[in-house]
Design a protein that fits this description.
Blueprint (H helix, E strand, L loop, with lengths): L2 E7 L2 H15 L3 E7 L8 H8 L3 E4 L2 H7 L9 E3 L2 E2 L2 H8 L6 E5 L3 H13 L6 E5 L11 E4 L12 E4 L4 E2 L1 H10 L9 H8 L6 H7 L6 H10 L3 E5 L5 E4 L1 H7 L3 H4 L4 H4 L10 E8 L2 E11 L5 E10 H13 L20 H13 L6 E4 L6 H11 L7 E5 L5 H9 E2 L12 E2 L1 H4 L4 E5 L6 H13 L1 E3 L6 E3 L3 E6 L3 H6 L5 H7 L2 E4 L10 H11 L5 E2 L1 H9 L5 H15 L3 E2 L6 H4 L4 H7 L5 H4 L2 H15 L6 H10 L6 H13 L3 E3 L6 E3 L1 H15 L1
Parallel strand pairs: 1-2, 1-3, 3-4, 6-7, 6-8, 8-9, 16-23, 16-24, 17-20, 20-23, 25-26
Antiparallel strand pairs: 5-10, 11-12, 11-15, 13-14, 14-15, 18-19, 21-22, 27-28
Helix pairs in contact: 1-7, 14-15, 21-23, 25-30, 27-29, 28-29
């Protein structure tokens, strides 16, 4: 039976582009149906029934899954597309040698940011891309615009416009689709490799280097000797002509015994051919090896040899552990001091005083506060004022590890303790922190079965490695932090009461930014200077920033300052603030209308656009239907399907901001809606 694949996108044009490409890949083996929020009403039972009858759905963003999840079963196959550029689009961008700043135009802030991230991954980080999208406040004064198929949204002021074409579905997503559809055997089809040939991969920089001709052989050999992975090159006749020292060590064959020999005789496990291989696990001389092969093709497509990049699988695991844990000495250093805890408020002054007092003790410290308030900074400041300041400061995030791995990371393990364990065993975090400070971030996320073992370490000051029998003495200062209410977690049975009291000997509460508003100006100035920013914030704008709630605390403030710095403006007004901040500086609107519940409307851009359209219709003595509202929204460069309009009108009617006529009478703005808009315009004018 022919499989059925559905594509769901916001834009109909993007969906059509995906469909055309996938039809070339799958041929007649899969029936493909495209749906878009632009053209389809997902409130329609007919559409939902069509989707339910599919074998797999491909969506372009996670937010689309959130919209569809109510209609799908938990085991429904949903694939979120990973995207890349076509080689044609890549070459267009590569040709812009005289461009250092450009607008990146896309459908939304999220999609623009996502595309910028992709371009930076592909090596275009020397171009400063400024996101531009429909309905943004002020369009940056930049001559060059780059877009991925969204020419209709390119500002008219752009003097040079480059369309890279719609982003394409990348290789990993194609493979995932074949697997979900149960068609893995078709991955070898020529149509698949032909499609892959049109894509730019994230390894393009490596592939470019590996594709150089023999004229660069000497330079390449020098480079290979510096690489930390093994590299072996076999020419078009399958003769090994080059390899580096790491390759010798990994395959356990001397270089002199490999060079000039037939690759299929010396290393039959490696397929030196015109086929590209990525991250395949093979066994060579009793060792598991991570293998990738990159064929070298001439301009006419003629095969000219192949490079194998190999890595000892166990060494790869160990290297990842080193990176993740920053093993020993150099990595375990507390870089922040009490001088970097900035602010003049009484709240932050109290925190600094507590740090000074608690640094003198060896008792456990529990730091609490919302996410982004700087709890790790406080922990490092305590360490750097303590007698342990010259010893290790080892930080571990209890929420970042798989629960099954966290125990072995904390306690370490002996050789052969479990499948995949290092043959030499591994020192755990407790041992690394011996005589120093151990910082357990997000302690509230620690699995409850591990909490009992942590309690024993605190009480007995000794550990035993996983799979071991030797008792190892440890002595370290423990500082824990959490953004959860641990007393509430105790009531829910998610946190041990005895561990809580063992940790909460010296408590420190780090206040959120909204409770220390007088520090905001000091912090903004500090972060601005650290970014070498050259802008001034008007008094009115600074007052607005002080009234903002800052749910993300210091992290959100840093992001805001970075955004303002990228605007490259000398003076920052309220209209220059990030959109999500502008829309929430709404206290004056709420006071004018005496309705706190209107927050939902103020924070929903769709509601504000529709309300504005209805107000214009009121002035023209018109009543509008959903289709007309959708068209007028599109004219304002805002994509709203009739389904979106229906949802928005329902919400506006609930808050009595609109009147709806029965039948086909259309919708009109209410007196309360007019009052709401006038108050909002008054705020924006200020």
């Amino acid at each position: 039976m022919t499989k059925k694949l559905g594509i769901v996108t916001f834009s109909a044009a993007v969906g059509r582009s995906y469909k055309e490409n996938l039809e070339k890949v799958f041929g007649d083996d899969v029936d493909i149906f495209d749906f878009s929020f632009e053209n389809n009403n997902f409130d329609s039972q007919n559409i939902i029934n069509q989707i339910k009858n599919l074998d797999t759905i491909l969506i372009s963003t996670y937010s689309q899954y959130e919209m569809l999840r109510n209609y799908l079963t938990d085991d429904f196959n949903v694939v979120i597309a990973k995207l890349t550029l076509s080689k044609k689009g890549y070459n267009i961008l590569k040709s812009l040698t005289d461009v250092d700043t450009a607008m990146l135009v896309n459908l939304s802030p999220e999609m623009a940011a996502e595309t910028i991230g992709l371009l930076y991954q592909l090596g275009f980080d020397y171009i400063k891309f400024i996101p531009v999208y429909p309905n943004m406040g002020k369009i940056p004064n930049i001559d060059v615009a780059v877009t991925t198929g969204e020419m209709r949204f390119v500002p008219q002021r752009a003097k040079r416009v480059y369309d890279l074409g719609h982003r394409l579905i990348d290789e990993s997503t194609i493979v995932e689709l074949f697997i979900n559809l149960g068609l893995e055997e078709y991955l070898a089809n020529k149509s698949v490799s032909e499609y892959f040939d049109t894509l730019v991969t994230y390894n393009i920089g490596v592939e470019y280097l590996l594709g150089k001709s023999n004229a660069l052989k000497n330079q390449l050999d020098a480079l290979l000797s510096l690489m930390d992975k093994g590299v072996i090159y076999a020419n078009k006749d399958n003769i090994i002509v080059s390899c580096n020292g790491n390759a010798e060590n990994i395959v356990r064959i001397n270089k002199i015994d490999m060079l000039g020999k037939a690759a299929n005789k010396i290393l039959p496990e490696i397929d030196f051919s015109d086929k590209q291989i990525k991250d395949k696990l093979v066994k060579i001389n009793g060792k598991y090896i991570s293998l990738s092969c990159y064929p070298i093709l001439e301009k006419d497509g003629k095969y000219n040899g192949s490079y194998a990049i190999i890595e000892d699988f166990q060494s790869k695991e160990d290297a990842q552990n080193k990176l993740r844990l920053q093993l020993m000495n150099k990595g375990h250093v507390a870089k922040y001091t009490i001088d970097q805890i900035l602010g003049n408020s009484s709240e932050i002054e109290e925190v600094r005083n507590l740090i000074k007092r608690m640094a003198k003790s060896k008792a456990s410290v529990l730091i609490t506060g919302e996410s982004g308030t700087g709890k790790e900074l406080v922990a490092q400041a305590i360490h750097n004022l303590s007698n342990n300041k010259d010893k290790h400061f080892v930080a571990v995030n209890c929420a970042s590890f798989n629960p099954s791995l966290l125990e072995s990371e904390l306690f370490g393990y002996e050789a052969g303790a479990f499948t995949g364990a290092s043959k030499s065993g591994k020192k755990g975090i407790f041992e690394m922190a011996n005589n120093g400070t151990l910082f357990l971030d997000e302690i509230g996320e620690m699995p409850i079965e591990l909490q009992a073992k942590l309690l024993r370490v605190i009480e007995e000051r000794e550990i035993m490695r996983v799979g071991g029998s030797e008792v190892i003495k440890v002595d370290m200062r423990i500082i824990a932090a959490t953004n959860l209410d641990l007393e509430e977690q105790i009531q829910k049975g998610l946190f041990r009461k005895d561990l809580y009291y063992r940790l909460n000997v010296l408590p420190i509460y780090v206040p959120p930014l909204r409770d220390r508003k007088e520090d905001i100006e000091v912090l903004i100035e500090y972060f601005k200077n650290s970014m070498h920013g050259n802008f001034v914030i008007t008094k009115e704008t600074m007052n607005a920033l002080k009234e903002y709630n800052w749910d993300g605390n210091i992290r959100e403030l840093i992001n805001c300052v970075r955004y303002l710095d990228n605007l490259e403006k000398s003076k920052i007004e309220i209209d220059d603030l990030p959109y999500h901040i502008r829309r929430r500086i709404s206290n004056e609107v709420r006071r004018d209308l005496k309705f706190d519940q209107l927050d939902e409307i103020l924070e929903d851009e769709k509601c504000l656009v529709v309300l504005e359209i209805l107000h214009e219709a009121f002035l023209n003595r018109e009543k509008l239907g959903r289709k007309t509202i959708s068209q007028k929204a599109y004219n304002k460069r805002f994509n709203l399907s009739e389904y979106d309009v229906k949802s928005v009108l329902k919400k506006l009617s609930y808050y009595e901001l609109t009147n709806s006529s029965r039948g086909r009478g259309g919708s009109t703005i209410s007196p309360k809606g007019i009052e709401f808009l006038e108050a909002l315009k008054k705020l924006n004018a200020n």
